[in-house]
Structures are given as C-alpha cells and as structure tokens.
Amino acid sequence: MQVSIVMPCHNAAAYLPASVGSVSAQTVDDWELIAVNDGSTDATLNWLRAQTDPRLVVIDQSNQGVSQARNAGIRVARGRYLAFLDADDTWSPDWLKYMITALDDNPQAVLAYCGWQNVGQVHARGAPFVPPDYENERKAETLFTGCRWPIHAALVRREAVLAAGGFDSSLTHAEDYALWLRVAGHAPIVRVPEVLAFYHFHGGQQASSRKDRAALQFWAAQRQFLATNESFANALGKARLRELTTGLLLQKGYDAYWQRDLPAARAIFRVVMKQGYGTLRDWLYMLPAWLPESWHRQLLCLRDT
Questions:
Q1: In terms of CB atoms within 10 Å, which of 184, 186, 213, 253 comes out highest?
Q2: 173, 207 contact by CB (below 8 A)
Q3: Is the dihedral angle over the CA atoms 27, 5, 146, 112 positive or is it negative?
C-alpha cells in the first residue's frame, strides 16, 4: 500500500463529508483512510460507520486528544507513507499524486511538503501560499524557529515517524512541530511548489485560537528538542539559543499584548520574566503582568488615553 492517511475526529460530523470527500476524490487510489473517532458526542461515529468504501478504517476510542488519536492511527497504518488530515480540512484531488511522486523521485528525503491556503481568512492571510525551499544550510535553525507547514501539507515516510516515536501526547499544541523537528531536522526534505492543502477556518474553538497555550507549548517543545540534541544547541551558542527560544516567546507575548489579548500576554510575560530575559524596556511592559488583571487593564486604559 502506498499511503495511510490518519484523520483524528472529535465532534466533526459537520465537516466529514468535505474532508473525507477530498480523500475519495484523489486521482491516486492506493490509500487507506484511518479515521479515529476520539470520543465524539455528535454523529461522527455513526457517519463514519455508514460509509461503504473498504479503504476507510474506523477506530473508536475515548477522548484522549489529537496526539493519542493520531498515534492510534499510526499503530495500525500499513502504507509506506503517512499523511495526516484533520477532519475539517481538505486536499486538492492531485495532493497524493504530487506528494508521492516527490518522495518516489527523492528516495533520500524523509518528508515532502507543499503549499496551502487558509480558507476563510481575509486579505493576505487567505491568499494561497507556496513556502520556500528549506533544504539548505540553515534548515535546522529555520525548522527550529517555527512550524513551517500545516500538518496536512506534508507526506512522510512511515519508518521515519516510527523512529521518531510518533506524536508527543504531552503536547496539545505544537505536537506537529515537535514531530517535524525530530523527523526532518537531520534528514533531507523536498518541496512540492503547488498549493494542494486547504486549512478551513470556521466558528468554534480551533487550536490556533489559544495564543498563550500555543506559545508556551511551542517553547516547551523547543526545550525538549534541545535536551536531546546537544550538538545543535552547541552550534548555535547560548546567546543565539536564548534569542530563538525565550526571545521568540517574548515576541509572541508582545503580539498578544498589542492585539489586547491580555490574558495570553500576561501568561507569556510571566514565564519570560521567570527566565530572567528581556531588556529594561521589555520589563516595563511585562511587570504589570504580576498585578491583578483588572489593575493591568486600568493601566492600559491610562496609557491609551
């Protein structure tokens, strides 16, 4: 079998016709779709079990989170390659064709990634995006400083995911970033310069909406990677590492602050201060995070007047 596609599903009944439909519409038909119902309380499980395509494998489990759901799919996957498609996202019909060809043509590469579009976002954020070629001398640092593609914009060799230990179930955010670091940090990757994956924004709580949790778990994933990659840490040096970890966390705190997401900014600032990071000007912005939030808001009102 060519590809095993793992789809975690939690209360996703409204989105499954589109997401599963985008798999069924692939121009390559040598795939299995492993849909993991992760404790849904809506019609998700009934919808999945009503499908008649024998390539659809349904796993039902109690709610354990997206990482555990993906790992459950990985354990039964039979394909040479693994893909991960969330239940509310979709692919172009040619996604499998382009991505399989990229890895078949580059046997040394462990992962192929493509362009994507954020459907439902406005202006530049909703424009199609083709990422640059990251396979260069700065790849390790580039991958370390950000998740460079959404999870459904990558096709990866199954043995590479198994060797990396699958998804870290201690992370509820940045779990894909952490996996890509372990998989692609030390092995070649290949770009497919086509927009083939679609991330759909909709009403409801999506992972990207919790800025503080996302930022802090990204920082935690960075620290976990550094703990087992001493040579990478030594190559960067202490000052550069602080800039790329706690410094990047501080910038995310500022992003939340200027968007007036004060709870997120306060949570991030407190962690940064505990690390003893920042200039005097930074600390003038951060110190009110130790005050009651109502007092902090009053200070902002005074500053804004």
A1: 253
A2: yes
A3: negative
Does residue 129 sit in helix, strand or coil? strand
Point out the residues of the chain with pLDDT beneath 50. Answer: 206-208
Burial of 60 per CB tally in 10 Å (0-12, 13-18, 19+): middle
Greatest C-alpha distance within the chain: 64
Question: Rounded CA gap, 287 and 266, in Å?
Answer: 9
Whole-angstrom distance, CA of residue 3 vs CA of residue 203: 31
Q: Count how many Cα atoms sit within 13 Å of the Cα of residue 269 in the half-sphere of its side chain.
A: 25
Where in the chain are the domains?
Answer: 3-205, 210-304
**pLDDT per position as a tens digit, 223-232:** 999 999 999 9
Between strands 111-119 and 189-200, the pairing is parallel
- pLDDT tens sequence across 177-211: 999 999 998 899 999 999 999 999 875 554 445 89
Summary count for the chain: helices (H), strands (E): 14, 8
**Rounded Cα gap, residues 10 and 2, in angstroms:** 26
- The CATH code of domain 3-205 reads 3.90.550.10
Q: Which amino acid is at 112?
A: A
**Neighbour order of strands in the sheet with 31-38:** 56-61, 31-38, 3-9, 81-84, 154-157, 111-119, 189-200, 90-91
Token digits for 74?
């990985």
Q: What is the 3-state secondary structure (H, E, C) of 196-246?
A: EEEEECCCCCCHHHCHHHHHHHHHHHHHHHHHCCHHHHHHHCHHHHHHHCH
Angle of helix 293-304 versus helix 262-274 axis, rounded to 10: 110
- Strand, helix or coil at 257? helix
Asked if residue 151 lies in contact with residue 176, where contact means CB atoms within 8 angstroms, the answer is yes
